Amino acid sequence: MDHIMSKSLYPKTFFHFTNDIEKLESIITCKFFRPSYARETIYGKNQQKIRYFGIPMVSFCNIRLSLLSEHTQKYGSYGIGLTYDWITRNNLNPVFYVSEHSNVFPQLDEQIRNIKDDSVITKESYNSLSNILRYIKNHTGPLIRDEQQDNNYCFADEMEWRYVPKSSTNIIPIVLQKNIDTKKKKE
Q1: Residue 85, domain member (yes or no)
Q2: pLDDT exceeds cutoff 70 at 118
Q3: CA torsion 79→91→183→177, rounded to 10°?
Q4: How many whole angstroms separate alpha carbon 96 and alpha carbon 108?
Q5: Per-residue pLDDT reduced to its tens digit, 80-96
Q6: Do you know which Pfam families this protein is assigned to (predicted)?
């Protein structure tokens, strides 16, 4: 057999959506996605908040066209599609979804907090480990949009990929949610 073609279960187009046509026009004109802070809350058992923070990022989804209607209702009806080649050239990474019933996130969070308190550990080691936080999201949990809340939303259905600026840039890699409590502060 010379070459076996494998068929992927996932689409080859990655979408970024916004509710603002001017933002989409800016992306196309400037050929640049500008990160803004997204609020993330990681829940543990019984929807107990384990950690809540803000991450500078640009979010993309890898969902089938048949699912776009529901997705655009939550994230905006203006979008742009990009190829897998573009995604990989620009260092995007898929989100790591964790179950609220799993010990994966609480254990990671505990180690990050312990390392932060250890004066022997280098700043680079701490930053490297805490960088993982910027790619973690609950598999299922509360979604709040326009003052409406879905307590059992399946985030994994979004097949999210993120562009997250390197920690070495002048953008703060993780912030407290209270520091981005308005739309203006998120930019």
Answers
A1: yes
A2: no
A3: 140
A4: 13
A5: 999 999 999 999 999 99
A6: AbiGi (PF10899)
- Pair type for strands 136-138 and 96-98: parallel
| Least confident window among 42-56, 106-120, 155-169 | 106-120
Element (H, E) at 34: none
Q: Could you tell me the sign of the dihedral formed by the alpha carbons of 55, 61, 91, 112, in that order?
A: positive
What residues have CB less than 8 Å from 130, skipping those under 6 apart?
112, 173, 174
Residue with tokens 């949009």: 145
E-strand spans in the chain? 13-18, 36-43, 49-61, 78-83, 93-94, 96-98, 136-138, 140-145, 148-154, 160-163, 175-176
Distance CA 166, CA 82 (A): 21
Q: How many structural domains comprise the chain?
A: 1
Q: Are 149 and 41 in contact (CB under 8 A)?
A: no
Give the range of the structural domain holding residue 50, as residue numbers without chain letter.
13-186
Any domain includes 4: no
Dihedral of the alpha carbons of 8, 66, 30, 24, in degrees to the nearest 10: -160
Inside any domain, residue 7: no
Residue type, 16: H
Which letter does DSSP use for residue 69 in this model?
H
User: With b meaning 16 or more CB within 10 Å and e meaning fewer, what string describes 98-116?
Assistant: bbbeeeebbebbeeeeebe
Model pLDDT for residues 141-164, shown as the tens digit of each residue: 988 877 788 889 999 999 999 999
